[in-house]
TrEMBL record:
<feature type="compositionally biased region" description="Low complexity">
    <location>
        <begin position="504"/>
        <end position="514"/>
    </location>
</feature>
<dbReference type="InterPro" id="IPR029016">
    <property type="entry name" value="GAF-like_dom_sf"/>
</dbReference>
<dbReference type="Pfam" id="PF25601">
    <property type="entry name" value="AAA_lid_14"/>
</dbReference>
<protein>
    <recommendedName>
        <fullName>Nif-specific regulatory protein</fullName>
    </recommendedName>
</protein>
<dbReference type="InterPro" id="IPR025944">
    <property type="entry name" value="Sigma_54_int_dom_CS"/>
</dbReference>
<dbReference type="Pfam" id="PF02954">
    <property type="entry name" value="HTH_8"/>
</dbReference>
<dbReference type="InterPro" id="IPR003018">
    <property type="entry name" value="GAF"/>
</dbReference>
<keyword id="KW-0547">Nucleotide-binding</keyword>
<dbReference type="InterPro" id="IPR010113">
    <property type="entry name" value="Nif-specific_regulatory_prot"/>
</dbReference>
<feature type="region of interest" description="Disordered">
    <location>
        <begin position="473"/>
        <end position="514"/>
    </location>
</feature>
<keyword id="KW-0535">Nitrogen fixation</keyword>
<dbReference type="Pfam" id="PF01590">
    <property type="entry name" value="GAF"/>
</dbReference>
<comment type="function">
    <text>Required for activation of most nif operons, which are directly involved in nitrogen fixation.</text>
</comment>
<keyword id="KW-0238">DNA-binding</keyword>
<dbReference type="InterPro" id="IPR003593">
    <property type="entry name" value="AAA+_ATPase"/>
</dbReference>
<dbReference type="InterPro" id="IPR058031">
    <property type="entry name" value="AAA_lid_NorR"/>
</dbReference>
<dbReference type="InterPro" id="IPR025943">
    <property type="entry name" value="Sigma_54_int_dom_ATP-bd_2"/>
</dbReference>
Amino acid sequence: MRVVSRQSSSNLELLAIYEVSKILGSSLDLQQTLREVLRVLSYHLQMRRGRVYLLGDDNVLRLVAVNGFSNEQITATAISEGEGISDRILKTGMPVVIPNLAEEPLFRNVAGGREDLDEQIASLVGVPIKAAGSVVGVLTIDRISDEGPTTHFGSDVRFLSMVANLIGQTVRLHRTVAEERRYMMRETFRVQKELRQPEPIADIVGGSPSMMEVLAQVHRVAPFKSTVLIRGESGTGKELIARAIHNLSQRKDGPFIRVNCAALPESLLESELFGHEKGAFTGAQKDHKGRFELASGGTLFLDEIGDISSNFQAKLLRVLQEQEFERIGGTKTIRTDVRMVCATNANLEEAVGQGKFRADLYFRINVISIMLPPLRERPGDIATLARHFVTKFSKDNGLNIKLADDAVGVLDRCPWPGNVRELENCVERAATQCTNGVIKAVDLSCSMNLCNSSILFQYRTTGTPVGGLAPAAAVTPTGPRPAAPNGHNGGAPPFSAPPFSVQSSPLPAPAASPNGKPWPACASACAASPTCGSGTSSVTVPLAPLPEPEPADGAEADADADALSDVPDNGSLRERLLWAMDRTGWVQAKAARLLGMTTRQVSYALRKYNIEIKRF
């Protein structure tokens, strides 16, 4: 009988192992799979109250599967460090057998479900769940008996250890798959984020990579209240970006107030921003709300903030930091909920270093900085913008104007120091001059020697901006070094504006313009003619000629002739200029006659060499 019973028990265990292996490989739901395993153990081997504990990422042992427990009860059950039998199995990694749970001092019934120990004798068998040599959980079962503890715990430990090994391998596989899935999801999200194009913004045209980055940054910062500083050259569209930030934010239903700080004097700017009380000054006949007060709940855009005075910079600090202020002539503190968006084309870091801009104000406004690229760094957007402006002009004037390909080619090669604003003006000017409703290359200003950029380029020194426009490109003098006024230059004036070499692309041989006349030289290198372009070859573009010096007569001529004999022969132009200015008491007209130059030439040379004029 014992042999038959032993064989029957072995067959049941073998059948149970087979059923457990099938269950563990049938589903990716780990909790449901473990509950099914415990159900098989209870059905085939009468192992009651089976429990599976697993170690979480926080090193806390938690109950994940048990017979008769709901998911909420399982999730809420955790075993603290140093508590209970399961924790001892986890630490030692050895099986534990407790013949009578009622007599075990470590048993605390943490997981519940054993309130009937006074009526029945319950024994516990627990084994560690191992994976890759480390303990990752605990498997426990109860043996219930009315007569007393059973004696066949050895076979139970051996059988449960095999089941625990299968569970350990399944847990390891599930965790590996889960980690790989999380990694793939992170990588997929990252790639999608990189490839996802930002949504277009109204009135902002452009698809170049630099503008796509700007638009993506606008979408990222718009939902927050943080102060934004928009930087870029004049004409790049800073106000459009500021309005886009407002329209994409949660304040889009609030007011969008614009203030050009450079257009108002300091006294008026303070009244416009903070407001004033009735009688605060002459002409204050009633209370006036300031822009900070009017923009509450919305966005306040301060354009050209780099041009405000030092005194007014200090007055902005409190309202930017505390969001509160007082009107001029008032004592009541007014709180405002406004988002600040500032813009400037000035180099604020340089201004801070020179003491022209307060460092504390700089750090308050430079929370999030958005740099707008100049149009010359967006070559792919020039044609798109030009066609957009043509469409806009046609719609505003009830016309149907097109842009020819040759005109687009000319526009693409222009450096555009005035950026988008200059491009819009150029297209609108050409649209008024075109015939047959088509803008061609001959309709552009540069083709008629009327390019505004050409004029601006003549007065820009290397690296110095003109009126907020882009600084000059890298240029190098190509003419001979000016000779001293000693008669060896064939009677030519001792100083003349040297021609500049503009880097341009390889060009074909010069050809005649469509009207048969020679192409005009465009100092902006806009490539309207075959003599212009941008790239690698060197094209010499001289500055506008200056008038010849006017001869002096009378006593001044005799005095200048006497002084001319003392002019240093071997000195540089700067040295001779300093000598002449010092000799004539820093009067430019006299120094010009002494050097045989015009007053304009002397003034140009003083600016070129950064010579500070002394005042007496």
